Amino acid sequence: MAKRRRRKKPVVPVHRISTPLYMRRHFWLYLMLLPGLIYFIMFRYVPMGGLVIAFKDYSPFRGIANSPWVGLQQFQKFFETPDFFRLLRNTLGINLLQLVLYFPAPIILALLMNEVRHSAYKRLVQTMVYVPHFVSWVIVASLTYQLFNVTDGAFNYIVKAITGTTVDILSKSGAFWGLIVGQDIWRETGYGTIIFLAALSGVDQEMYEAARIDGANRLQLTWYITLPAIRNTIITMLILRIGGMLNTGYEQIFLMRNDLNMEMADVFDTYIYTRGIKNGQYSFSTAAGMFKSVVGMVLVFGSDKLAKKFGESGLY
Amino acid sequence: MAQQGKIKIETIKEKKYVNWGRIVDVIIYLILGLIALSTVLPFLYVLAGSFATEKELTEKAFFIVPSVWSTNAYKYAVRSANILRGLRNSVILTIMGTSLCMVFTLLFAYPMSKTHLRGRGFLMNMVIITMLFSGGMIPCYIVYNAYGLYDTYWALVLPALISPFNMIIVKKFFQELPSELEEAAYMDGCTDLITFVKIALPLSKPVIASISLFYGVGFWNDYFASMIYLKSAEKFPIQIQLRSIILLTSQVSDAMMDYYDMNGAPPDKAVKMACTVIATLPILLIYPFVQKYFTKGVMVGAVKG
């Protein structure tokens, strides 16, 4: 802070021009901002204003302004549905499983890649593991279907050869969470390493050399140099992960769920879609969505505060 | 003499350490190789399957080189009007969407990269708020429909014009450009717009390449927004067609029926695989050219602040 203030102080007093003059001089800069500004207002902020329908009994015929206010009734209705508990269980279940299995995966992969000294091999591995990230969920779902379906999926040929029976992962409700997290790991682990590898590229190589001369082995190098170097990144990612605790990729879940696994597959996002867009219960599902995003925000700020309390630098 | 002996012992020890390290190295290389393979194998299987005969597909569990090559599946996939239309729609949507997104994002990011810009802090907060909080699915749906976007591609393009995340990456990139060039241009009487077009843009190819890839992949892969906003079947992009072919197990409709009439059972499995390949191919073709840029792009975004 002190540093910044010192730097800002000019050696020779500079005449600060008035804002109207500045705006006239940089007319083009403001003109360039204009399309983006209109975009943010029309497509980001106006829908936020649309959240008022969560407190109304909105019907498309009456319009937003003419629909009657109902206070918190929609929220109350949402919390009282028997669905609420099921949605909460599924959403948290998938997210906790992700936190345990999917979150550490890119860190481990980045640490392994960091040990590779042949840069050609490293680049080859990187090129391959980034690919799935760029493939759509529809394709991921297709690949999953083609590999795991009971009648002719490759996976079940192998399972049948070993155990004599087949496993229907795609329609067993007990397997759904694992299926979703498995897809996430397959698709995003490679891409997730980029951010950690970036942090690792900043580590001074002399530190490793010095530690090696002091007799540190590889495990110790990883523990005392590599991990502390990516500690901040890990914590930032963790805060974001916890903030997204009520989010689930709706495309993904929507594509993988079916009548048989619905009990474990229905999450807030799919519920909002079904209730809102399919059944036209706009106010009700807006309330559900608002609950979700408010809790999400509280979680981000809460975990950020907590991280700072433990002496970490946090998000901001 | 004594000293010499000591040195000898140390080198032996060192050698032993290196050998042990080799084993660890080999293990790590193997693990990484397996992981890399596991990401590519499903693609290879589907690619091989799309060129295989239906007989081989039902008999063999897994292969990456078909014993009998056949392009039948592609012939029937290409004959399907749905798939061709889907592909065409996706190409149009991707090109139109990506170019508009790039124009909006670059235009907004350039002024935001100028630290002297008055009102910059306010605008930045305005952008960041949208990253933390949004109207959500239903209010967006109601508002965009009220704009008259329902059942048009605008409903997919306009809401996506500026991704705050991408905008910040571009802004950071502009900030890191050497300011001397722009200052010189400014001294020569160039307006901000001309400086942007003639100096900043030509220097920004890496970031333009990676951000275009991000936007382009987003449009090509989009499924959910198309499903919500598009109603007419003739506007459906390839992802929606693909889903109905593979997951809803509806056959490749018209083309398949033709084939069915001629030859009996259709090569159902191979055609599904061929469709998967067709929908994946454009991305896999562009990817190698952009790959060297995007790691850099994401890295810039990873630095906090």
Task: Please outline the helices and strands.
The complex is a heterodimer of chains A (316) and B (305).
Chain A: H1 2-8, H2 19-25, H3 27-49, H4 63-66, H5 73-80, H6 82-102, H7 104-114, H8 119-130, H9 137-148, H10 154-163, H11 176-201, H12 205-213, H13 218-243, H14 250-256, H15 262-265, H16 268-278, H17 282-309
Chain B: H1 2-50, H2 54-59, H3 72-79, H4 81-112, H5 120-132, H6 137-146, H7 154-157, H8 164-176, H9 179-187, H10 192-200, H11 205-221, H12 224-229, H13 238-246, H14 253-263, H15 268-302
Provide an overview of this structure.
The complex is a heterodimer of chains A (316) and B (305). In chain A, 72% of the residues lie in helices and 0% in strands. With 316 residues, chain A is an all-alpha fold. Chain A has 2 domains: 17-55; 63-309, Orthogonal Bundle (MetI-like fold). By secondary structure, chain B is mainly α. In chain B, helix 4 runs antiparallel to helix 11 (205-221) and helix 9 (179-187) packs across helix 10 (192-200). The radius of gyration of chain B is 27 Å and the shape is globular. At the A-B interface, helix 2, helix 3, helix 7, helix 8 and helix 9 of A face helix 1, helix 4, helix 5, helix 6 and helix 10 of B.
Q: How is this structure best summarized?
A:
With 316 residues, chain A is mainly α. Chain A is built from 17 helices and no strands. Chain A folds into two domains: 39 residues; 247 residues, MetI-like (MetI-like fold), CATH 1.10.3720.
Shape label of chain A: globular
Helix content of chain A: over 70%
**What is the CATH topology of the largest domain in chain A?**
MetI-like fold
Name the chain pair whose interface involves the most residues: A-B, 94 and 92 residues
Number of helices of chain A: 17
How much of the residues of chain B is beta strand, in percent?
A: under 5%
CATH class membership of the largest domain in chain B: Mainly Alpha
Structural class of chain B: mainly alpha
| Rg of chain B | 27 Å
Residue windows where pLDDT falls under 50 for at least 5 positions of chain B: 250-255
**Could you give me the name of the CATH homologous superfamily of the largest domain in chain B?**
MetI-like
CATH architecture of the largest domain in chain A: Orthogonal Bundle
Number of helices of chain B: 15
